[in-house]
Amino acid sequence: MQAGYLLNERYKIIRTLGEGGMATVYLAEDIFLNREVAIKILRLDLRDDSAALRRFHREARALTELSNPHIVNIYDISEKNGLQYLVMEYVPGTNLKEYIESHHPLTYPRVVEIMLQILSAVKEAHRHGIIHRDLKPQNILIDTEGNIKITDFGIAVAVAEDTMTRTNTLMGSVHYISPEQARGSIITKQSDIYSLGIILFEMLTGHVPYEGETAVAIALKHYQSEMPSVKEYDQQIPQSLENVVLHATAKDLASRYQNVDEMEMDLSNALDQSRLNEPKWHGRQQVEAETMVLPNIKDEASQPPKKFTKKRRQVLLGGLLVVSLMLIAGLVYLLMSPKEVTVPDVRGMTIAEAQESLNGEKLALGKIRRHYSSKYYSGQIITTNPEPDTTVKQKSKIDVVLSKGQRKEPFGDYRGQNYQTVAKKLTKKGVSVTKTGQYSNKVAKGRIISQSISAHKKVSFNETNVIFTVSAGAKSERLRDLSNYTEKSAQDYANDLGLKLVVNEADSSSLPGMVIAQQPQAGTKVKAGDTLTVTIAKNDGSSYTSSNAASSSTDTTTGATTFSFDVEVPYAATNAGNNKVQIYIADSNHRYSDVYQTATITKDTNFSLTFTLKPEETGKFKVVRDGQVIAENNNVDH
């Protein structure tokens, strides 16, 4: 599952935290509650095991009733598109396995401290009738402050019926299973206690007590081999701590701690000075005495011994020889003939895992075919030929079908289409569809503006989450007061809102070229497509001439005329700026790119403009208020 995937429209995947034989754990963000969570998604092949799922949900829901600071909280148990998942408290930090590897050797007080926290959690679960079944350092988390949190309570129930042929799946757990688990016997609370003893052994020594090449070999040692002494690894370990290990890992259930309270009490004072050199603990010894039954001895003195003739002796020896040869021949036949074995169930395994499982039954991996599958992830085995549980001869070849994952297709381009129609269509294909709204002046309401997945990207539809941005239609806006806007400024404003602009002209004493009226009025709500009508003050002449001038004079040498006239600049009360005015003129003495005059006005203000123009020369000016041209004339004549 890729980063960014939105599970059930709520949990946004951030990254993978770890993978196991039955599930993958992801770090995710709960976008509703704005917090990080851990999500455990079960293997796809378990979703068809209704009994396992019922047990899993029943016990997982029971865990929500547990209240202990050393048990990971479960927030949600749900299913989406066939994916069974748990949403749990995210514990930043590490697990006990990694902690032991990086901190070994641990101080004895720290070992006791960690173990008492673990016992507190397990005792709470046992009090509610919940057996963990899979206690191991990998399931014990340590947060950044060094506190313990146990996870995966009851999760192993979902795969309790898996056989020991799932070697790779169980290899991590088989180092900690009790003898009764290894034999397939009934699991009790004392089974958890045995696992706790193994964990205590590992914290003290840095090693597990039993090693082996296969899970089966390790399991055999759990119920056949004597528990190694922790003092063989470190002579300084107090005998009282070793006694807790031996008492917890007794093969005989009658000798093992009967409940977690007993182990907790024994461990809590194990470092007391009075206990450091106590005698080594020994469980109840079961010694089976063999009783030899002796035959009655009769007085055979009166019976003369039987005598064997040479011929009879030869016949007897010949018969014994024939029988011996037959027995040897039969034994050779049995040893040389391939035995019949049962094909293990390797569905859901990788090729490497399956090969190890088949080798354990002295079977060989045959042909490998690949098919698409919506049930198994890419690289997992879908089925075998012969099928699981079929009886075959050893050394037989087992063909397998390997999943290529789900078939992928281009996602498609849905922009411009109706959201409801598209969502219904994609949901049927298993896509998780969500939407966000956005105002648009170009895309009709309810139509898709954009999509989070490229149209050409190939996806597995029932593993895909898409977010569509859907048009909420044009956004309503309140009209500004456009008084004293130029026609160009009014047009720009209308374009921004998607309005149709209609321009009328009317004679006015106001500054020519400026808006003097508008319809609808300022403050009216409008939306894209509506019409805005403005009336512009008409210039009653083609140019400003000396008739407007306050005074004028002519240079007889050059023929240039100098004249002045007033321009009234209105104050904009509704303007968001500060009414900063800049005036530019172009004549014989001024360049149009240079500012002629600058001022900040607080009311309607007259400015006197002085031009010097030679014969046949025209001038021009413009007035800019807060960066916006509000008046201009390109044909000023004297």
TrEMBL record:
Binding site for ATP: 40
Single annotated GO MF: protein serine/threonine kinase activity
Any one cellular-component term (Gene Ontology): cytoplasm
TM ranges: 315-336
Record-linked InterPro entries: Atg1-like (IPR045269), Kinase-like_dom_sf (IPR011009), PASTA_dom (IPR005543), Prot_kinase_dom (IPR000719), Protein_kinase_ATP_BS (IPR017441), Ser/Thr_kinase_AS (IPR008271)
Catalysed transformations (reactions): L-seryl-[protein] + ATP = O-phospho-L-seryl-[protein] + ADP + H(+); L-threonyl-[protein] + ATP = O-phospho-L-threonyl-[protein] + ADP + H(+)
Documented EC number(s): 2.7.11.1
Domain Protein kinase residues, every copy: 11-271
Pfam annotation, one family: Pkinase
The keyword Magnesium belongs to this UniProt entry's keyword annotation: no
Root EC class: transferase
The PASTA domain, residue ranges: 337-404, 405-472, 473-538
Name assigned to this protein: non-specific serine/threonine protein kinase
